[in-house]
Structure formats: C-alpha cells, structure tokens
Amino acid sequence: MTLLSQPPADRHSLWEDALGLVVGTCMMALAVMFLTSSALITGQIAGLSLIVSYAAGWSFGAVFFVLNLPFYILAVRQMGWRFTLRTFAVVGLLSLQTEFLPTVLRLEPIHPLVSAVLFGLLGGVGADRAVPARSDAGRRGNRGAVAAGYARHSCGKRPTGV
Prior knowledge:
This protein is mainly α. The chain is 68% helix and 0% strand. It is globular and about 50 Å long.
C-alpha cells in the first residue's frame, strides 16, 4: 500500500495563489534589500534595474516595473493572457513591495558574501512561493519562457533526441 493513493493536485486554490503571491514577493523584496544594502547586482532584468537605479538614483521598483513592460507584449503573443496577467501581478506587487519595505525595515550594510547568500536563499524561495503555475518572476526568465513558447519547447527540458 502506498502512502498516497492519488497524486496531489497540481492546482492551488485562488486563496493559496494569492497568499503565495504576497508572501513570495515579500521575500523577494527583502532579497533585493540585501543586494542593495551591499550595492550588489544580479542578472536578468532585476540586475539591469539595479544598475539603472544605482546609476540614476531612481527607485528599483519603478525601474524594474518599466523595464518589464515590453516583454508583456511578447508574452501575450507567445504565452497567452493568463501567463501574462499572472506575471504582471508578480512584477507589480514585487515593485510595490520593494518601494514599501525599506520604509518599515532598515538594513545596515553587511558583508557582501552574506548579502549574496541571503539574496539567493530568499529570492529563490520567494520566487517559488510567488509564482503560480504558468507565470514567471525570474525563476526561468519571462524572456526564456516566451522564447521557449515561440520555439515550441518546454523551458528546462531538453529537446527529444539530445
């Protein structure tokens, strides 16, 4: 006899998705705070947003939100409205939380290695919690998901015969 007679459902309730979105994006916003406390950067659009925010003195949240806008057009065309709207919700909430969180929580500069490790842990777990199935916030990159949809390959899976 197996412990589970049926595999668990892949779908979460609307409440579970909403709670995961809020908690996960809060963790991701805290992860960004760790990066900024040590003036570090990361990759993808978040990294570019950090570079622009450091150089221009603009807020990370606003830059991150604006730099993601062109990719929604591609995402709608290749991945559909559902994926795009969920991704928009994640990016929008993350942008808002990165603006709000520093007003209630202050981080003193810490060692860059500690900041990098905490960013990786909080950002990874946060992205996993915030991203419902078939949306994106940096786990695989919206651009990668759109490209994979365009090429008709699933992200993270090798093509057959390779």
